[in-house]
Design a protein that fits this description.
8 strands, alpha/beta, globular, 9 helices
Length: 224
């Protein structure tokens, strides 16, 4: 029997990736953090495609796609992102990448570049993919779709603690402003905006622990 394809969308810092990882372990699925792919392209751009003002030159980035080889490698059951054979899993969580990823992710050229690779990974089933447009664009025929949301204050707290845990200096107010700006860009972009799929199950986890959110998602999957 083919294992399910599960799409988990939602706002930044609702725990999509960490929750998806646990569910993947429990159900024997592969977990793919699509946000990491966009962060990987952004990190490449920041290293290689800056203009004289220090901003990303998008045209230069688009013409450099043939120099970008992104791959996930299995490291003790965890998929770690490599760019051109270099582990960038920590580098992509920096504030600089966070400040620029929404600009990069809203570009049609970037989304087209990553779309087919995401779909081909899901063709065999047995995958849980999280992002912002998985249920609406990338995997519209997924067996299960979930949409995670939480209050801005709760998400700010989570993101701030995550950065500190990674050893990255952070200012809580700046983190909040970054999240609000990302919400705006992600929701209003013309290409594949962040939005809930009509057939997605919405889970507000403002007052739920990670464990409770996971249990809620699993309860829906195991009903079938």
């Amino acid at each position: 029997m083919k294992k399910p394809v599960i799409a988990i969308d939602g706002y930044s810092s609702t725990g999509k990736s960490s929750i998806s990882k646990v569910i993947a372990e429990k159900l024997g699925l592969i977990h793919l953090d699509t946000g990491a792919l966009y962060r990987g392209v952004t990190w490449f751009a920041l290293q290689n495609c800056l203009n004289d003002e220090g901003s990303i030159n998008l045209k230069e980035l688009f013409s450099s796609f043939d120099q970008i080889e992104l791959e996930f490698r299995n490291n003790n059951g965890e998929l770690v992102l490599f760019l051109n054979h270099i582990d960038i899993s920590k580098a992509i969580r920096s504030n600089e990448v966070s400040d620029n990823v929404s600009l990069v992710a809203k570009q049609k050229e970037v989304r087209d570049f990553l779309l087919q690779s995401q779909r081909s990974l899901a063709e065999k089933g047995g995958i849980i993919m999280d992002g912002r447009d998985i249920g609406t664009v990338v995997l519209p025929n997924a067996d299960f779709k979930f949409f995670l949301t939480a209050s801005i204050d709760e998400r700010t707290k989570r993101r701030y603690m995550e950065l500190l845990g990674l050893g990255i200096e952070a200012n809580e107010q700046q983190v909040k402003e970054n999240l609000i700006e990302r919400d705006k860009i992600d929701s209003e972009r013309e290409i594949a905006p962040l939005k809930q799929a009509e057939d997605a199950i919405v889970i507000d986890n403002t007052n739920l622990t990670k464990k409770e959110t996971i249990e809620s998602i699993l309860s829906h999957i195991q009903k079938i």
